[in-house]
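Hello, quick one for you while I still have it in my head. Could you read through the record and tell me how the tokens relate to the sequence? No rush at all, and the record is pasted right below.
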Amino acid sequence: MKDFFNMMGIYFAPYKKYIVLTLLLNIFAAIMNVFSFTMLLPILRILFNVNQVHYEFMPWQNEHFDQILENNFYYFSQSMVEQFTPATAMLMFGGALSVLTLLKTGADFGGAATLMPIRTGIVRDIREKIYLKILHLPLSFFTDEKKGDILTRVSTDVNEVDSSITSSLESIIKNPILIVVYLGTLIYLSWQLTLFTLLVVPLLALGIGRIGKSLKAKSLLLQQKWSEGFSQIEETLGGLRIIKAFIAEGKMADRFKAVNNMHRRIATRVAVRQSAAHPVSEFLGTVMIVIVLWYGGTLIFSGKSPLDASKFIYYLVILYTTLQPLKDLSKAGYSIQKGLASMERINKILNAENNITEKENCVEIDNLNSEITLRNVSFSYNEQREVLHDINITVKKGQTIALVGQSGSGKSTLVDLVPRYHDIQKGEILIDGVNIKDMKIRSLRGLIGNVNQEAILFNDTVFNNIAFGVEGATRQQVEDAARIANAHDFIMEMEQGYDTNVGDRGCRLSGGQRQRISIARAILKNPPILILDEATSALDTESEKLVQDALERLMQSRTTIAIAHRLSTIKNADLIYVLHEGKIVEQGTHEELIRLGGYYKKLNDMQQL
């Protein structure tokens, strides 16, 4: 239980009032349950005809209150039998039992109902924390994690926490209260017999404990295997065209079957272990009852028992009633172990370190006044092999610079450093002489607009995709941005114009249309700094011309850093930097680099050929 409270304690804190209320209701229900059983005593005495003792009313005193309470209870029950017939008295006792049971069941319902806001709230809070953490984690975290594995933790693991942990909250809160109240009643009835009973209980705990020892580890492995299966489903959906093109359906099916069968084998073992909890606890509980029945009966027959026959039966009723919360608590223990395994996987995301942090007293910036400077910048993803080495670049306000080089030379990584998607290990990046690590991240990224090779759109309307990230954008502002981006005409031809849904990742649009909407989004944001990451490389000639025209309008009066494979798109750049294996090997204008006859000219000649 220590692991449970360590992991889940933080999630219970906002629901203290519900926890207190459900505790009070369950305490009341447990007390009413015990009092309802006391109604059995006069009924048993009537049935077994043991009312030979004549009771007299005793005045209430603080001293020996429990004895006076018991005496007067029997006095009133005896009076009822004498005043009415035994059958009528039994009916009246039964009516009292029904009223007490109604109070008990009402409190039970109230305790369960007040748990629902806790249960649903905890699941909501966990999902929300995971989503917010995903939003704020650095991009480097996701390069090391499978998308399918992350989705499994958000969906399957959270559902497992719901079904295993939060569904066990009633057992965790209610059953300890019942056990304490019932145990107190047993001690009151006969502490000697209860002490003997407690010596037998460890056998029950030992048997259950041996079964659940490895359940958490097996559950953790179970969730890991399903993550692999989920990742394969996600990969299949993303690569279905390639799978069909290479006739690889059989290969992919075999891969999935292997993981699915392994998941089934582990799931079977976990389910068998969990199913063993009830029969084992049932058997051990029955053995305990038999032993207590034998021991108590021996005392009664020998005349040494503090209990008469009716009280002993009442004792056995309470004892047997105690077994159910014990079994429920052990069953909840199994469920919690499964849930904790899923919670460990969730915590891998929640506890992931975010090294992109802000210092105290960060600087707010709202414009670029002078220049962007990269000074002696070196960077590596794993602190072993440098992706960029000793980069020095200066971009004056209003300039357009271009980065060219072969794939893997570090161009995209370089532009990702400016908005602090990653933090550099050596050197510094300055905007108007201020280190970007000394700036507020929100204001830094507010200066920058991105247009990437893959136009990322959301499953929403055209209007909302263009207005994404711009609070309070009007219809006229969105349309003006679309016109500048050469997107207004094709948008108006769509069935609902700007209110048309673009589909998942913009699947209802062509590549050129998606790109022009992403350019319109950047235009509406109106950033002073623009980063273009191969924005036209995946387009056909006609679409490229339209997009290039839109980009040129977007780049006017802005400071631009452009990555390009097609050198024809960056001929007019103020300065071109040529990267090779993470280093700047050449720099200059297009004409200067051609005259230099080096790496850039080689790339240019290859493209012309």
